[in-house]
Task: inverse folding
């Protein structure tokens, strides 16, 4: 049950991304006013954070957690771009994948910074 609770959030979020990528024009009101690379970056930052949560729960160190989360996020971003190549009115774009990977870096860095801050606060409290 513990593993399910760790891994269900990233898996469900990946399913949401897959569903959104299957749509010809998902969220048109949002994509008309927000730069699509920013949306990619933000969305994949969240995915990286969810991966970090799951990996840390599996007992990985903070550094390994961040590195593996970025790798998993980037790989999923690449698979998502490949998937979009087969979706009507969508295209596969290396720049989108780079934005996904950048988002993974941002999410993992945020996780690592928060973990470091919590460790310092815990150390100072003792």
Result:
């Amino acid at each position: 049950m513990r593993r399910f609770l760790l891994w269900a959030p990233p898996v469900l979020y990946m399913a949401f991304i897959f569903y959104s990528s299957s749509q010809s024009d998902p969220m048109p009101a949002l994509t008309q006013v927000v730069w699509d690379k920013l949306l990619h970056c933000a969305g994949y930052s969240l995915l990286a954070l969810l991966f970090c949560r799951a990996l840390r729960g599996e007992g990985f160190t903070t550094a390994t957690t961040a590195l593996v989360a970025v790798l998993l996020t980037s790989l999923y971003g690449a698979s998502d771009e490949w998937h979009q190549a087969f979706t009507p009115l969508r295209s596969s774009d290396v720049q989108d994948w780079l934005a996904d990977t950048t988002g993974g870096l941002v999410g993992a860095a945020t996780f690592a910074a928060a973990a470091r801050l919590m460790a310092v606060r815990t150390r100072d409290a003792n």
